[in-house]
Design a protein that fits this description.
Elements (H helix, E strand, L loop, with lengths): L1 H26 L23 E6 L3 H9 L6 E7 L3 H13 L6 E3 L5 H7 L5 E4 L6 H10 L3 E4 L7 H14 L3 E3 L7 H11 L6 E9 L3 H5 L8 H8 L7 H10 L8 E8 L4 H10 L4 H4 L8 E7 L4 E7 L10 E5 L2 E5 L4 E4 L9 H10 L3 H13 L5 H15 L7 H8 L1 H10 L5 E2 L20
Helix pairs in contact: 2-3, 4-5, 5-6, 6-16, 7-10, 14-15
């Protein structure tokens, strides 16, 4: 009897394990390409001398793009779209002030963006809406013959990640996620250092998005219809991983000779939003009584195919200084940004380089793109200039028919942490396989590089 009972118990354990494996396999599935569909690794498209742009979503990020893009020669903003008429009119004023022709206006209906995508006089759709519209707009735009650039994250679900990949492959149109932190002056300098072997073989990297957003989340106007607050109510894991992840993925050559293998994610309980709401609105307020699903701190650990490790963190609900936690650690040295910028190198890696040595290194390894356009970027602005460099590189690649810096595989790979980290957290921090969105093409390229003519 004991033997039978024990056997039944083992079968139950095995069946539970198999269910977990089955679920894990499902979320990590890699659907086969449709017949005749091929990868877009290193894809070049016909050069576009004058890039005609439609901007969809004119809130905080969108109106800033309207300001920046006219500084780049060979761009023309043809259409402005937002559900709010006020945002469209304000953006139109920005264009007028820049001395540019007025753009056509689209507003008032939830699907006005479709009309922008359907126009035959637009080359690039630039998406700055709330997160849940990123993939639907990007897919529709590509299906209507447009290249697309979309804010982060590019997708919220695994299905959306694959929609982006498959649509880009089918239409042969670029799908670029607008990850501005890849163009920060420090991140670009440290990328240059890594590419030139300053740190030896990179072994480990870290990134984060730690930014106290409680006041903005509860603002009735900052995020349209409080969409980001609503995300906190329904989503856990790491909903916004790419600011810290993008730059370290480029340094580690993810999708350029290496790929993510698997991850585990651990999330704390939610404390910060409720505590803040009680203090601001009162113990019995609807804000204080609301359930917030997003844990305060999420930590995701990733192992790559080549044996490297990555740590990514997310916390937007506690009183902490802003921190992207940019770290590259190798066999010959180490570099970090936040809480301080610092470099440590062999043979004296127990100590930081002094300020003179540090400044010398930063000057020596200033990235060529920063040397080219950095001063203008500082004048135009956008998070210190990195937003402008991001736009400049996108337009440069389109105008010269070059492969883009961040392709659809990067968009999907970096964004897939959103659903995969949530799955891991909800399943006891289980290990989850990260799909290969290139479907075997990740090692066609040896090392990430910015394309130049």
């Amino acid at each position: 009897m004991k033997s039978i009972t024990k056997s039944i118990a083992i079968l139950i354990i095995l069946s539970i394990s198999l269910v977990g494996i089955s679920q894990n396999t499902k979320i990590s599935a890699e659907p086969k390409r449709a017949k005749g569909q091929t990868d877009v690794v290193g894809m070049s498209c016909t050069p576009i001398k004058n890039v005609r742009i439609g901007i969809i979503g004119l809130g905080n990020r969108g109106i800033d793009a309207v300001y920046r893009l006219p500084f780049i020669e060979g761009t023309e903003i043809k259409a402005l779209c937002d559900i709010r008429e006020k945002c469209v009119k304000e953006s139109q004023k920005v264009l007028t002030k820049a001395g540019k022709p007025a753009a056509d206006e689209y507003y008032g209906t939830a699907d006005a963006w479709k009309k922008v995508c359907e126009r035959d006089d637009i080359d690039l759709i630039y998406v700055c809406t709330q997160w849940d519209l990123h993939t639907p707009i990007a897919v529709y735009a590509m299906e209507h013959g447009k290249h697309v650039a979309l804010e982060v994250p590019a997708a919220l679900t695994m299905d959306e990640c694959w929609q982006l990949v498959n649509t880009s492959e089918k239409t042969r149109k670029h799908c670029v996620m607008l990850e501005n932190c890849c163009y920060d002056f420090f991140e670009m300098a440290t990328l240059n250092m890594a590419q030139q072997g300053v740190f030896g073989e990179l072994v480990h990297a870290e990134g984060a998005y730690i930014h106290d957003l409680r006041t903005l989340n509860f603002s009735p106007t900052y995020y349209y219809d409080q969409w980001r607050l609503k995300q906190n109510m329904k989503q856990t894991g790491d909903p916004y991983p790419t600011h810290g992840l993008g730059p370290v993925c480029q340094a580690l050559n993810i999708n350029y000779g290496d790929k993510m293998d698997y991850l585990v994610a651990l999330g704390s309980k939610q404390f910060g939003m409720t505590e803040y709401a009680k203090a601001k609105f009162g113990e019995n307020s609807k804000e204080a009584q609301q359930t917030y699903t997003l844990g305060d701190m999420n930590t995701t650990l990733i192992r790559t195919h080549n044996g490297k490790s990555i740590l990514i963190q997310h916390d937007v609900t506690n009183p902490r200084p802003y921190d992207r936690h940019h770290i590259l650690s190798g066999t010959k040295g180490y570099v970090q940004k936040y809480p301080q910028e610092g470099i440590a190198l062999e043979p004296n890696a127990h100590n930081w380089l002094n300020s003179v040595q540090f400044d010398s290194m930063m000057k020596k390894y200033e990235h060529p793109i920063v040397k080219e356009v950095g001063e203008l970027a500082k004048k135009v602005g956008g998070h210190g200039g990195m937003d402008f460099i991001m736009d400049y590189r996108l337009i440069y690649c389109l105008q010269n028919g070059l492969p883009v810096d961040m392709d659809v595989y990067d968009a999907a790979t970096w964004s897939c942490l959103v659903p995969l980290s949530e799955y891991s957290v909800k399943n006891g921090s289980t290990s989850v396989k990260v799909p290969d969105f290139t479907r075997g093409a990740w090692n066609k390229r040896t090392g990430f590089k910015h394309a130049v003519k």
